[in-house]
Amino acid sequence: MRKSNSRLTRGRISRRTVLAGMSASFATLAMPRILRAADETIRIGFPTPLTGPFAAEARDQVKCAELAVKLVNDKGGIAGRKVELLVRDDKLNAGEAATRTLELIEKDKVHAVVGALSSAVQLAVNEVTRARGVIYVSISQSDTINEAKDFSKYTFHEALNPHMTTAAVARQTMKKGMKVAHLVADYAYGHEMLRGFKRAQAAIGAESVGEILHPFGAADYSTFMPRLMSMRPDILCISNFGRDQANAIKQAVDFGIKQQMKIVVPVILHNQRLAVGPDVFEGVVGGANYYWGLEKQSKSAADFNAAFRGANGGAIPTDYGAYGYSGVASLLLAMQTAGGTDTDKVVEALEKLEYDLTKGPQHYRKCDHQSVQSVLVLESKKKSAMANDSDLFAIIASDAGSENMLRSCSELGHPS
Length: 416
Prior knowledge:
This protein is α/β, with parallel strands linked by helices. It is built from 14 helices and 15 strands. The strands form three sheets. A seven-stranded mixed β-sheet has the order 7-6-8-9-10-14-15, sandwiched between helices. A five-stranded parallel β-sheet has the order 2-1-3-4-5, with helices on both faces. Strands 11-12-13 form a three-stranded antiparallel β-sheet. Helix 3 (55-74) runs parallel beside helix 13 (319-338) and helix 13 (319-338) crosses helix 14 (343-352). The two termini are 35 Å apart. The relative contact order is 0.14.
């Protein structure tokens, strides 16, 4: 196994970084929940990285979150109260996210928080919300946020997690005896995805032949490609996100890696596929929470697509956009059930909620508040197979939502 050098380590967003930037004022966090008038506007805080390498996905999250709010307000709001979305740029930085979240709670008096795109940044948001007794619905992939040490009764995780996506992708691409190499972004998300892939491949009987860590936000991958090729794997797992994914796959193709091995990713990103075109991504397989092409087989997907098209000039919603929609919409459904914003009543409603907003039935598991949902496995189409510019992927599998696809409550540290 290749170990990261000091240069790589500096690129890592670690648990320590999550807590960095939280000033001494955080000592006051363990205060009672702020009381708010029952007849005021319902305010939802929405921190997301509008600047930086995940900005394209963040903008899609905002558009879809705004759609969820619009649809509720068009029907009269919740118990006669309109809903307002307060978007803040967390700049993909843990300290910035914590500061913005604290401002949303103390200054803007939000009733709940939805958002974040980095697995590490969401932990900073969660530190603030759980200390203040404010509901937080995370829409970033993470295994850590479900673990008992980071969990609270106010923490809900609407996104898929790395354990789910890597297992689904591995089942479709790996076989016993195959050799697997890994190129991994050296921060929390990359390490969680690596752990998921290695766990899945061990269960299948595939063999790891090496792993290379790369700095977060890297532009040049040329030094890594010869080393990966020398490992002679059957499968190359590239575990990174945003522009890192597009850059890594493009440079792998430039080196001729696809002639030697199959490229798979834990999450195949709509925006990054658009950024580099069909030839680069052709044949790449990855997991996904959502793809607009589901409208052919899912009424909720068709309805979601139609609503988004109507509000956005005919454009289609993306994978990470769908997280913004379902994260906010599931929260608003619970508020409707609770008849308002009383935190304990909304938490209880979320725990009992069964919802179908974009792709089929979902619910939050009681022990860790992970959303149980389907996992798609997509393969990027070659240009000649595309019916139009939006016809990016073929759905090669759809694993139905089941608690069996999750790590057990006891493994996560929760009482069984």
